[in-house]
Specification:
With 210 residues, this protein is mostly helical. The protein has helices at residues 7-65, 71-81, 86-102, 106-116, 122-138, 142-150, 158-172, 175-188, 192-200. The protein folds into two domains: 15-139, Tetratricopeptide repeat domain (Serine Threonine Protein Phosphatase 5, Tetratricopeptide repeat), CATH 1.25.40.10; 154-202. Belongs to the YfgM family.
Length: 210
């Protein structure tokens, strides 16, 4: 805006500017306020949905613990209807898989662990892979079980993974591979149980042994 010599000229100039730009300014203000309130409404809705999902999750999991006859169906429905709530779906799948393990329905348990594996949460994904490996081993799908263990890369899991790997290799009849796995497990974390498993393996004979 130009510099005006009198207050009257300044007032006239402001009125003229407002006449030319007032609608645009008002529209901008309305748009900004609308966006602000829209965002706040969205956040409120999201929080409400999260609270509802959490409440429903607790109810369906409690039904599993309580031995509700319809618990399996309730959890399955929750998983199907809440697919966008990825974390809760994974948690529910883990709980349902645990239920199937306890009822010795291992194939169903494996299916639920695979659902939980889709989690973007690394911890949930790792837990699902480890438990799936155990289930596959119980189903005597030893190679599949070992493949699942290979998916777990976190160092904090090394001791557990290598112990289970040793157990699986031993069941496959490969004592040498089992020994290597147990040694790796103990190297990661001393464990008297794993040490006992290692000690119970027959010693490896060399061509020079008499």
């Amino acid at each position: 805006m130009d510099v005006y010599t009198t207050e009257e000229q300044q007032v006239v100039a402001i009125k003229q500017w407002w006449r030319n730009n007032g609608k645009v300014v008002c529209l901008s203000v309305v748009t900004c306020l609308g966006s602000l309130y829209g965002w706040r409404y969205f956040q409120t809705e999201q929080e409400t949905n999260r609270e509802q999902t959490s409440e429903i999750y607790n109810l369906v999991v409690s039904s599993l613990v309580a031995g509700d006859a319809n618990a399996e169906k309730k959890v399955a429905t929750f998983i199907d209807e809440r697919k966008k709530e990825e974390a809760y779906v994974s948690l529910a799948s883990l709980q349902l898989a645990k239920f199937f393990v306890e009822t010795n329905e291992l194939s169903k348990a494996a299916e639920q662990f695979r659902v939980a594996q889709t989690s973007k949460n690394k911890m949930l994904n790792t837990i699902a892979s480890f438990r799936l490996a155990r289930v596959e081993a119980e189903l005597k799908n030893f190679d599949t079980a070992l493949q699942e263990l290979n998916k777990i890369t976190g160092e904090s899991w090394t001791a557990q993974v290598e112990e289970l790997r040793g157990d699986i290799e031993l069941r496959k009849g490969d004592a040498t591979a089992a020994r290597s796995a147990y040694v790796a497990s103990i190297a990661a974390a001393t464990n008297p149980v794993v040490q006992m498993k290692l000690d119970n393996l027959s010693p490896i004979r060399s061509d020079y042994d008499e």
